[in-house]
TrEMBL record, chains A, B:
<keyword id="KW-0805">Transcription regulation</keyword>
<feature type="domain" description="HTH tetR-type">
    <location>
        <begin position="15"/>
        <end position="75"/>
    </location>
</feature>
<dbReference type="InterPro" id="IPR001647">
    <property type="entry name" value="HTH_TetR"/>
</dbReference>
<dbReference type="GO" id="GO:0000976">
    <property type="term" value="F:transcription cis-regulatory region binding"/>
</dbReference>
<dbReference type="Pfam" id="PF13305">
    <property type="entry name" value="TetR_C_33"/>
</dbReference>
<dbReference type="GO" id="GO:0003700">
    <property type="term" value="F:DNA-binding transcription factor activity"/>
</dbReference>
<dbReference type="InterPro" id="IPR036271">
    <property type="entry name" value="Tet_transcr_reg_TetR-rel_C_sf"/>
</dbReference>
<feature type="region of interest" description="Disordered">
    <location>
        <begin position="217"/>
        <end position="241"/>
    </location>
</feature>
<feature type="DNA-binding region" description="H-T-H motif">
    <location>
        <begin position="38"/>
        <end position="57"/>
    </location>
</feature>
<dbReference type="InterPro" id="IPR050109">
    <property type="entry name" value="HTH-type_TetR-like_transc_reg"/>
</dbReference>
<dbReference type="Pfam" id="PF00440">
    <property type="entry name" value="TetR_N"/>
</dbReference>
<dbReference type="InterPro" id="IPR025996">
    <property type="entry name" value="MT1864/Rv1816-like_C"/>
</dbReference>
<protein>
    <submittedName>
        <fullName>Transcriptional regulator, TetR family</fullName>
    </submittedName>
</protein>
<dbReference type="InterPro" id="IPR009057">
    <property type="entry name" value="Homeodomain-like_sf"/>
</dbReference>
<keyword id="KW-0804">Transcription</keyword>
<keyword id="KW-0238">DNA-binding</keyword>
DNA sequence: GCCTGATGTTGACATCATTAACATCCCTCT
DNA sequence: AGAGGGATGTTAATGATGTCAACATCAGGC
């Protein structure tokens, strides 16, 4: 097959563009973020005319979409690697907790290692108006999109299964976990924590993860002035997308 | 003075452009986000030549910066309003906790009410290379920037002062709190929770706030298999910017 | 062995940011 | 008061971008 390789021009017009363009565009995103994903530039890198890209993508937005997918894939892989490479687990509950922590740490790790790709992975897309999609098998984004999200959710299920987290807190928990981790990543990349020493970033990450996990696993405050609680709008329906 | 008003053309060239441009650009951002802040469009709205803007801004990036400031201001004001309008406080500790909660809710409220402005408020800026700044008294961004961040930090101080939150957890806590709230906002705006019923969004928000606050205030798990804790990289140095 | 469709190319257009050169108008200094 | 100067805007031009229409080329099936 020889796909997505530089020497892939088999005498054909190119071999397989599309993948070559995706690779070029991903490189652009790697240093420069989503706004650096310029259709003409990608075509230039591949050594092809700008309009050639329109044979494989509906336009620049579609190309960016492909880059997003690359970014999401990389993120999920880093998270899985981080969770897989964690040390021994004293107990089942401990293991589940450590997995949540490792996934969160992997999330931050990827964001810091590949800031451009990370930003591209979560950049806003004009949202195709549905209906007539151009060339290229445009799959349902929800399958690969936000795979990191599902990883987190499954880890939280483990937290409940081992009894570490009350089942009543489970609904919406993946939202909370994702929000905390993603917000931290954004804060570290673009926010006031832009230039910070690595060990400080790690410390903040550990602190945030500890706090959120404690929020999931800690018992309810014993001497509460509110038995039912006025802000008891907790535990919402769990329905994503 | 008659500034920033539509009828402000006092026979002068315009009265005060700059503010008129900022207003126009802010309107553009309101529906369309930061990428809709197009210099030429803003100038067109004000009824002025595109290059006229260069007398008041170094370029489009500078104009966007002004819009960011508007967004940050709006965000902080919504948060303060939300925190100020909260009900009675049974105890000091309870009040501090409710303030944190109200600030977070205000954060989300603004993000949902003004999605374009919110995104503009946190959009990436090329970061002026320091040194020769163009026209316009370019103040230090850290003063108005991230005012919401400071609000959150002060509320957390209150949490410690009333004894609700152990002092040892305070360092880095504003990072955690900000991350959770900001991540949730992004998730609701651009993420998988894009189109969700309002009451569900409120429920998720309440759930996230409850979890994080519990993480701040809950006692350490009593029957822990780890007395000192292997993941005790908590409590990092507190140094922003 | 030619025709059809996939794949690329050239040319053109509209928009954008930005600069240079020029015009205008108010304010201040003498 | 009147002239100059600086602030404020305008026109013209440049280079980059996304995108479309028309044309060229190559592979493989009838």
């Amino acid at each position: 097959m020889m796909r997505t390789e530089g020497t892939g021009k088999s005498g054909y017009h190119h071999g397989d563009l599309r993948n070559a363009l995706i690779e070029a565009a991903t490189d652009l995103a790697r240093d420069g973020g989503p706004e650096a994903v310029v259709l003409r530039a990608a075509a230039r890198r591949v050594g092809v005319s700008p309009t050639a890209a329109y044979r494989h993508f509906t336009g620049q937005g579609d190309l960016l979409m492909a880059v997003k997918e690359q970014g999401q894939r990389g993120l999920a892989e880093t998270m899985e690697r981080s969770a897989g490479a964690r040390g021994g687990s004293p107990s089942a509950g401990e293991a589940a907790e450590e997995r949540v922590r490792a996934l969160g740490a992997g999330y931050i790790e990827f964001a810091l290692a590949e800031p451009g790709l990370f930003r591209a992975a979560f950049c806003r897309t004009p949202e195709a108006p549905d209906g007539g999609h151009g060339p290229g098998p445009e799959e349902d984004p929800s399958r690969w999109m936000y795979r990191s999200f599902r990883l987190l959710a499954e880890a939280l299920d483990g937290l409940v299964a081992t009894g570490r987290m009350p089942a009543g807190r489970r609904p919406g928990a993946e939202i909370t976990a994702w929000a905390a981790v993603h917000g931290l990543a954004v804060l570290l990349l673009d926010g006031p924590l832009g230039r910070l020493a690595p060990e400080q970033r790690d410390a903040f990450t550990a602190s945030a993860l500890t706090t959120v996990i404690r929020g999931f696993t800690a018992p309810e405050r014993p001497s509460a002035t509110r038995p039912a609680g006025p802000a008891a709008k907790d535990a919402p329906e769990h329905d994503v997308s």
